[in-house]
Specification:
The protein has 513 residues and is mainly alpha-helical. The chain has a domain of 67 residues. 57% of the residues lie in helices and 3% in strands. The protein contains 27 helices and 6 strands. It has a two-stranded antiparallel sheet with strand order 1-2. A two-stranded antiparallel sheet has the order 3-4. The chain has a two-stranded antiparallel ribbon with strand order 5-6. The longest helix is centred in the first third of the chain and has 22 residues. The two termini are 32 Å apart.
């Protein structure tokens, strides 16, 4: 069976659509903004684009009924796990079940079908910050396990998250901490936890790197020598199924006194994390990443030591929340979503969608994935072709985002993917969109201009430039006045509506969030 919440939501939407179409025949149609103000709708659409992957029409309707604060509460406090039909995935796509194909397609299914979108959005966020790749590890299972860890700890205490990251077998092998011994340290993880994962360049010394590395000696996987050999040998096999386990080897730990960021003691890894998380630089680094991801595109991370934040006052507000709430990421997110700088109209469409945001958001509009399906493979490949190969980051620095997401080839891939996914009027999501476009009309017919306006309303509401709207209307004019009074005219209307939907999701506004 498919995910119950998704199917149920679309069934409710279908029932409402039929009711609205019946009312339209007698002139009783209604619009969303008769109940909710235009500004409420625009703000809610903004929240659901940032805290999720954009709203389907049904999700938007439901959210407006709940109200802004209640939606934030629900997003920040998921109270149930996603229902993933592992039995069906195993039956129809054994390669996904065994994670033979890189793991990306398996994750795509969850991203599309989840009803806890912020939790999954945070998994993508931490995957971008703590970039770990199957390209070196070969093992897809351990990176999937790391994503599971983000799912559990990604909106909790940053201290707990860094400790779990430091114990994560994928991270240990990715940054070579299995070679970090009390008698001979390896500085790789000690450097990156300071530089890329918490504080940023310029806020620590080379001595801090050495001392932090000493604190993490003995943090390794079970039987590391054998597992390292197996990892290398497994390149000749088609399966990436190996799953390592963390262990702390007390005999391999450096028990001497260490000085980390000015604090002296016989520190272990947990102490190093505590000291790191107490730093003002850590709060600023985390806050800037959250701002970059949820509010507006910042400069690439390597430029942060040399350039001030885009909005220093916003960063200060988020830093204060970080310390006031015991380094809790969920609390900082609440501060962000409730802030004036987030709600400000100038922050809307101020970020370029990442490939995963664009791909997943478009697939969610099209409707639930019906297994078996090739769309998860197509989506995984499309993300990679656009520059974001899930579970295969380009380096330990992850993806910088911003303008780096857009070039000629990537934009063409975006347009082509959206067109392929939304080309079938009989898909549940597309059928729902078409029904709602009809429901916004005064009767059983619609002009080409109304088709464009209604489409923008149903798909968002989506704010577009006058030039975009005029371009859409110029194209739609070839359809003339449309009706759906009989089977032939209804098919003609479906084709026209699908064409406009495809153009809207190809627009520059849809490519931003």
């Amino acid at each position: 069976m498919q995910s119950d919440w998704y199917t149920h939501g679309y069934q409710k939407a279908q029932n409402a659509r039929v009711k609205n179409e019946t009312e339209n025949e007698t002139g009783g149609g209604t619009t969303m903004t008769t109940v909710h103000s235009r500004q409420e709708a625009l703000l809610m659409a903004h929240l659901l684009r940032r805290a999720g992957f954009g709203a389907t029409p049904y999700e938007m309707e439901r959210a407006l009924g709940m109200g802004y604060e209640a939606v934030i509460d629900e997003l920040l406090n998921p109270d149930h796990p996603d229902v993933i039909p592992d039995d069906l995935i195993r039956r129809y796509h054994v390669d996904q079940s065994d994670l033979r194909n890189g793991g990306g397609a398996h994750w795509v299914y969850r991203l599309v079908m989840t009803d806890t979108p912020l939790r999954e959005k945070m998994c993508l966020f931490w995957h971008r910050v703590f970039a770990t790749g199957t390209t070196k590890l070969i093992q897809n299972r351990v990176v999937t396990n790391q994503i599971d860890m983000f799912r559990e700890h990604g909106m909790g205490s940053f201290d707990d998250l860094l400790i779990e990251l430091s114990r994560d077998p994928a991270m240990i092998m990715w940054l070579d901490n299995q070679d970090n011994h009390g008698s001979n340290i390896n500085e790789n993880y000690g450097r990156e936890i300071l530089e890329l994962f918490s504080m940023g360049v310029g806020n620590y010394s080379e001595e801090d790197i050495k001392e932090t590395s000493r604190a993490f000696t003995g943090w390794r996987v079970v039987n590391p020598d054998y597992m390292s050999i197996r990892m290398r040998n497994n390149t000749a096999r088609p399966y990436g199924y190996m799953s390592w386990q963390f262990e702390y080897d007390e005999k391999d730990h450096d028990t001497g006194e260490k000085e980390i960021l000015g604090q002296k003691g016989n520190w272990n890894g947990e102490d190093a994390v505590r000291i790191i998380c107490e730093q003002e630089a850590t709060a600023k680094f985390v806050a800037r990443h959250l701002y970059h991801y949820f509010v507006a595109d910042e400069l690439p991370v390597p430029q942060w030591p040399h350039e001030e934040p885009r909005d220093p006052e916003a960063i200060d507000i988020l830093c204060k929340s970080y310390f006031d709430n015991g380094h809790n990421i969920g609390a900082v997110l609440r501060t962000l979503f409730e802030s004036d700088f987030f709600k400000d109209a100038g922050s809307r469409y101020a970020r370029i969608k990442s490939p995963s945001e664009m791909v997943i958001g478009t697939m969610r509009l099209a409707g639930p994935i019906e297994l078996p399906s090739e769309e998860t493979y197509m989506a995984d490949a499309a993300c990679a072709n656009m520059g974001q190969a899930l579970m295969r980051p380009p380096s330990v620095e992850g993806w910088q985002g911003g303008t780096e997401w857009i070039n000629t080839g990537a934009y063409v891939e975006r347009v082509n993917f959206a067109g392929r996914i939304l080309n079938n009027p009989d898909k549940q999501g597309v059928r729902d969109i078409i029904g709602r476009i009809k429901a916004l009309s005064d009767g059983m017919q619609i002009s080409s201009n109304e088709l464009v306006d209604n489409c923008l309303e149903v798909l968002g509401p989506l704010e577009v430039l006058d030039t975009t709207r005029l371009g859409l209307k110029d194209y739609a004019s070839k359809f003339g006045n449309l009706t759906w009074s009989d089977a032939t005219s209804s098919d003609d209307f479906d084709r026209a509506a699908v064409a406009i939907i495809q153009l809207v999701v190809s627009s520059q506004e849809y490519q931003t969030v």
